[in-house]
Amino acid sequence: MRRLFPVTDMTAEPAGPAAPTAPAGPAPEAGAGDGDWSLDALADAYAYPEGDGPWLRANMVSSLDGAGQHEGRSQPLSSDTDMRIFGTLRGLADVIVVGAETVRLEGYRPARAREAFAERRAAAGQGPAPVIAVVTGSLDLDFSLPLFTAPLVPTLVLTGSGAPAERVRAAREAGAEVLFAGDGTRVDPARALAALTERGLRRQLTEGGPRLLGQFVAAGVLDELCLTISPTMTAGDAQRIAGGPAVAVPTRFQVASVLERDGFLFTRYLRS
Prior knowledge:
Largest sheet: 10 strands, mixed
Distance between the termini: 27 Å
Radius of gyration: 18 Å
Strand content: 15-25%
Shape: globular
Number of helices: 8
């Protein structure tokens, strides 16, 4: 894998990504050319900023023609290196925030503890695996799935105060913890993230789907976008990575780093 940006030395492999509000990871000791970087090198490159405040990062993939999925799933746009970064971002997060539709379409399972990140997580005061928090107004979910019945750490369900009582009860009976973060059946994005932060889950990662990411963008709470640009064309009418109503003024982000492997671009953007 190659680092294309930032370039600090045109004759040698550059040091880690430099950005005003994000850490600058050291250059990988091995595999810094066209091979895979080690998981430690990736973890350094994608480390969360220091501090006690919350940080919401999104991880998404897009085709060259703007599709965020193919036939309802993101996997056809992905690659082995993309999945290594996907796993690294999960290994660094306190909580993974995901929409109910993505849970249904992608067949979400509980996050697992990975030995490669165990020491790093312990040093940061994190549990063995990230919590998964599902955002849903209707709670139209299959609570018999392992995501709810057999996670390493209890799955959270974020919903509104007016959510159907019988569905709230079903979620709790399955072992999930229900948090109310909105009025009626609507989940307020800012209140949802605040509820997670109050539980000590400040390193926040969302993997979509597009409607949930669109809500975070509209609410102005997205701090960072990790976007894999897949060298594929899909045509069709697939959703973009963010959906929902347009914001009044486009939110400006600045590039923090760009990596490349096998034609895939792995980009990081920070909110300006």
